[in-house]
Amino acid sequence: MSAASRGSARRLVVEADGGSRGNPGVAGYGALVRDPSTGRVLVELAEPLGTASNNVAEYSGLLAGLRAVIDIDPGAGVRVKMDSKLVVEQMSGRWKIKHEDMRRLALEARELCTQISRAGGSVDFEWVPREKNKDADALSNEAMDGKSVHRVLVAHDAGDGAGSGTPAEQPGERESGEPRGGPLRLLLVQTPLEEASTSRIVAAVRRLVGPSAAVVGSDEILAGRLAGELAAALGSTAATSREWSGEAPGDGVDETVRTAYRSLVARGGTVVALTNRRGVLSVLSDVLGTPPERFWALATAPGSLTAVEVWEDGSASVAFTNRTDHLA
């Protein structure tokens, strides 16, 4: 079977931008992935870059957008839209790349394009005026203001999950029509491998969720100890059980963890949940509608943090995944 015949035939659009206040100066990038058939945004990304040039920030936005495409569908036909004439012309092969930093970033981008091509997809580039790149520009400005954004927006077709613009049924919806207990702000903590990292995890969680958040988690020894420390630091109580152990029979999604997550959705509130890698991925697969064959594709590390937000109407997003800067 040829690469072309393996491709999904799905179309995706990447809109990317980057900026630097000072050039070089305080820099950041923004990128999003859009379904061109519906206009719906599937992923939004923004990240500060410290001190960097405008061109480095533009290339960084491109890289983030291409990586997001590979997570969604590596065999898609991709149109990249940017208001950077330099990046578009260089990636299209019409302009030479003289600066070493940009040469390195362009090589990374080409490797990602090759990865998409090998999966049966394609990538082409289109320059657009700045006024037609406002969404990516707004994200890059958030990044330059010091804000990190990683939103995965749920919108799957009920039949094939390909993204028709019809919201998927969300976890925790009640058949009786009873109202939810309010929005859920869930911080998933992947159980660390050793107790030495627990103080750093506790400090990071306190910064993110503030006081009085509920704490739930696995009753495994280290997870239980960490749950107790978190509850003490947040001024709440910890509830540990086998529900969050991530050790149900079989492979892939742990339905016991998924059920526990859906019960949190029904109640709402701010919750910290400790579980293992399989447990984290079981929640994310429920939010994102991940197909079974892609269950293990998302990287998460011991001690990492992942944030999920679910609103009263059932819509959900992943604010960030695999955050590990607190462990450094």
From TrEMBL:
Residues 157-182 are annotated as: Disordered. InterPro entries: His_PPase_superfam (IPR029033), RNaseH-like_sf (IPR012337), RNaseH_domain (IPR002156), RNaseH_sf (IPR036397). It comes from the Bacteria. This is RNase H type-1 domain-containing protein. It comes from Terrabacter lapilli. Residues 8-153 form the RNase H type-1 domain. Pfam families: RVT_3 (PF13456). Transmembrane segments: none annotated. CDD domains: RNase_HI_like.
